[in-house]
Write a structure and sequence with these properties.
The structure is a single chain. This protein is mainly alpha-helical and 60 residues long. It is rod-shaped, with a radius of gyration of 16 Å. The longest helix has 32 residues. The protein is built from two helices and no strands. It is 87% helix and 0% strand.
């Protein structure tokens, strides 16, 4: 959860600045893009954590 929060904070701060540089409206584009990337990272982090923990649980 901490890694996902860190990714969303960094991306939420940088994404509007990057979009403004490309002459796009940050208010329209950043919300769906930030939600998509945050959800993808959260899903990846959960699956990575499960893959790391599952072999350790098999020895019980």
């Amino acid at each position: 959860m901490a890694a996902n929060t860190l990714v969303s904070v960094i991306l939420g701060g940088m994404l509007p600045l990057i979009l403004k540089r490309f002459k796009l409206d940050p208010a329209l584009v950043s919300s769906p893009l930030l939600t998509m990337v945050t959800d993808m990272c959260g899903f990846f982090f959960v699956l990575s954590f499960a893959a790391a923990v599952l072999p350790k649980l098999g020895g019980m």
